[in-house]
Write a structure and sequence with these properties.
- There is one protein chain.
- The protein is of the alpha+beta class.
- It has 5 helices and 24 strands.
- Helix content is 17%, strand content 33%.
- A hairpin with a 4-residue loop joins strand 5 and strand 6.
- The longest helix is centred in the first third of the chain and has 52 residues.
Length: 427
Amino acid sequence: MPLLVAPSPAPVAVASEIHPPRPVSSEPAAQPSDPLAELSSLCQALDARIRQGAAAHAQALRRLSILRRANEAGQNDFAGLERHLAHPREAAALVFCSRAEREDRRVFVSAGSEGVAQLLPAASSGLGTVELRLHAVDARPGARLHLDLVALNDHSSLSRWSLPLDRLAPGWVAFALDREPSGAPRLLELRLAVEGPEGAGVTLGGGEDMPVRRFRLRSGGAEDKAILPAAMELRLWTGSPVLPGGALPFSAAPGPLFAEAGAGLPLSPTLLVQAEHVNREDAPFEFTAVRPLPGERAVECHPLAEGLTLASLPLPPGRLVLEARAQLRVANPRSREVEFAAVLAPDAERAKLLLSGKARPEPGEGASSWVAAGPRTPGSLSVLARSGPRAPRSEPVRLFLATRMARPGQADFAWARFADIAMRIGT
């Protein structure tokens, strides 16, 4: 009988085979996060974003400010152009005059002091000239008088002047604006200071009592306190930004203003910068021979080695120029002596004829004699317009400036300059 064979037991799966062991990681176990570190990192990122936003906002404000100023300047330019086209140039008119009544109202503005400030008691629209009365001038080598006309709405400077004290004399001194302020009326402040060695300065006067405190003469420092119960002794003129023309009103000081100011009435910078070389064919140069120097209130007219150089300047429109003056300088010590002349004529050809003596001046015209000046020997000249009835002209009279070498042959370093050009204006 066959033997019964017991069935072999079914294979049993081992647990290690069903779930194989996970590999053991060599990296350390993750530590729980630090809330303070995460908060600090978040704050730093937020701070960086805030700073970026603040910088972008500041830049946008700057751009907006630039656009606003450009818009205001454009509106002012259009307003000035509209006013110029709509109305002819008006004669100068006195709009404010503060005369001294008491001799004890004197203010000495010394070099190194904070200076003085005067809020102008007149609207800015149309203002062309500011005149100051200097009762005394204490000049020292290198001392200068600085004036700045500032619009208080945006603290922009409308005109600046800087004059050596040794060229000023007691009396009325006129300061012509670069151009008439246009646009909306603004409050203007005149700031005056003296720069130079100790002892230099100018003495100003005070006018009538000023009931409104802010229009009194004040110190120019941070204290901003009134130093007189009156305004500075000054006169304000509207009209063309050249200089007062015609007879002065009886309320102003008597006598011609030209004589009172000593050095005369300076030509407006807006006319000075229009100086041009008018005989280029006769006087060719490889460089700019004629150039205005508004910062020095001068026109440079470089002479030829042989022959003359002729420059031309426009005169105040609608004005009758009775006389023109200029100081003569040669600005390079290596230059030889130069001769200068000035002519009042309608065109360059007429100016050449008057300079050569081949023609006689007509009424309104004039020619000076030739005046020599050198690096160490400055000079001055004056040209008078011939009086008499004037015939109608198609071209207005201009001021021509001429230079030539005193000894022809060499013109190196001949930086010849007509400085402090001034005029006497008639009716």
